[in-house]
Specification:
By secondary structure, the chain is mainly alpha-helical. It contains 5 helices and 2 strands; from the N terminus they run E-H-E-H-H-H-H. The chain has helices spanning about 15-25, 60-70, 75-80, 85-100, 105-115, and strands spanning about 10, 30-35. Helix 3 (about 75-80) packs across helix 4. The chain starts with 7 loop residues before the first strand and ends in a 6-residue tail after the last helix.
């Protein structure tokens, strides 16, 4: 959760005052976890955000598909836009994730922004 950017976690049966405390702490840049929830220790191994695989490792078509995912398009929309089957788009996505060692669309989006393939 922490590696994905989560700053807090509140149980759904928490008291209203705990929820208010959590919102205030997180909006102040701190973290908050409900009593009884042990936050996981931060990972020390390289994360998706530190991936250093160059954009040139991808084919032209993979870069095109990556850009569209990073721009917020869904698989079916990309398939229609590029005139290909949804399964082909999914296969491209799997290859891209494998080559870049990134396991989420959010990670792909961060990578695409960092590499200048798209903007925020």
């Amino acid at each position: 959760m922490l590696n994905a950017g989560v700053s807090g976690y509140v149980l759904k049966n928490c008291k209203a005052k705990d929820l208010i405390t959590a919102v205030r702490m997180v909006s102040a840049g701190k973290s908050y976890f409900s009593p009884g929830v042990t936050p996981p220790a931060p990972r020390v191994c390289p994360t998706e955000e530190s991936a250093t695989v160059p954009l040139t490792a991808l084919s032209d078509r993979e870069r095109e598909v990556l850009k569209l995912f990073a721009d917020g398009f869904e698989t079916r929309d990309i398939a229609a836009k590029l005139d290909m089957a949804e399964k082909t788009v999914a296969t491209h996505r799997e290859h891209i994730m494998g080559k870049l060692k990134i396991s989420s669309i959010a990670g792909l989006t961060k990578y695409a922004i960092r590499e200048g393939l798209t903007t925020v």
